[in-house]
Description:
Layout: H1 2-58, E1 63-66, E2 72-75, H2 77-83, H3 93-97, H4 100-112, E3 116-122, E4 138-148, E5 154-162, H5 164-199, H6 207-238, E6 248-251, H7 252-262, H8 264-269, E7 272-277, E8 282-285, H9 287-303, E9 310-319, E10 323-330, H10 351-354, H11 365-375, E11 379-385, E12 389-397
Parallel strand pairs: 7-9
Antiparallel strand pairs: 1-2, 1-5, 3-4, 4-5, 6-8, 9-10, 10-12, 11-12
Helix pairs in contact: 5-6, 6-11, 7-9, 9-11
Bound molecules: adenosine-5'-diphosphate (ADP).
Amino acid sequence: xxxxxxxxxxxxxxxxxxxxxxxxxxxxxxxxxxxxxxxxxxxxxxxxxxxxxxxxxxxxxxxxxxxxxxxxxxxxxxxxxxxxxxxxxxxxxxxxxxxxxxxxxxxxxxxxxxxxxxxxxxxxxxxxxxxxxxxxxxxxxxxxxxxxxxxxxxxxxxxxxxxxxxxxxxxxxxxxxxxxxxxxxxxxxxxxxxxxxxxxxxxxxxxxxxxxxxxxxxxxxxxxxxxxxxxxxxxxxxxxxxxxxxxxxxxxxxxxxxxxxxxxxxxxxxxxxxxxxxxxxxxxxxxxxxxxxxxxxxxxxxxxxxxxxxxxxxxxxxxxxxxxxxxxxxxxxxxxxxxxxxxxxxxxxxxxxxxxxxxxxxxxxxxxxxxxxxxxxxxxxxxxxxxxxxxxxxxxxx
Length: 398
Ligand code: ADP
């Protein structure tokens, strides 16, 4: 009997020991897991940070997070590229941005705790300068939002969008409409004035005067026609959904000969000599536009007041990287250096030529030339020493 109870006690003791061991092991496992979780915490945080950075970098506009104390604590790739090698992390936004208006907008958002949106302009010295023309300001849309990190701590998010191109293309469009209306109004008002005269009682009786009026009207109708045609060419070249260029091989020398032939009457009238130094070379491009490019350049050279003996030279030569360089040079009146930067702008005519009795052009010829060359991935530049030499130089892929 004693033996029986002894066995029972033994079994219970063994069960108790096993259960205690199991508990101890469970407790050990639990501690181990806690430790490993703790060890994993910085790694998880780092992965989370990387994910946030990846998302922000995918965003094409500059983004900055500013701490409660005013330091930049996070920024994306687009923001970094604006500051290149400059350190901006953990620096005060006032030291980094410097710009008074931008700092003012951030200060206001921080003080009022309200979202702030503004359109700001930056000059060419600012890190936010993106305008192609150094003289133009760059325009950015700025958004600042407060965001609570903890109960008592806030961050400010600054998101910026570059709207320079959109702003200026809007401006260019407005200028184009204003200039076009102005250019069309002048010949139109002359035509309207003469028509009123002719329609008055007895207006047609003096036939010699009536004929003069009709001839003047005809000249102005031709001018309107010319402006409208050239405006259509420009709008075709600028329209994003315009039919692509009709690219095919053509002979450059034949193209130059065609242009000179078309301009023969002007060449004769101006008593000019046109020298052609162009190889018989095959080019690929839209020969319609290349003819127009060369026509406008040679015609411009011929149109200006000639200093005799008046000479226009057209040259072309192959240059490295499978490119061609074409030049059109004349020894006419030239272009003052102050006007040179503007000659490719629409409707621009050199002031001095305005004084002439007859308006010689529409001011659209060179902007067509520039856009047509750019459509062929080429470039055009102009240099002039008034009264001596004016050269237009084109470089384009062959
Ligand atoms: P336009 O139709 O008036 O010729 P363009 O756009 O072709 O317009 O030229 C703009 C202005 O540039 C002209 O009005 C003229 O004053 C000047 N220009 C262009 N080419 C020459 C040149 N070869 N010599 C002198 N002035 C030139």
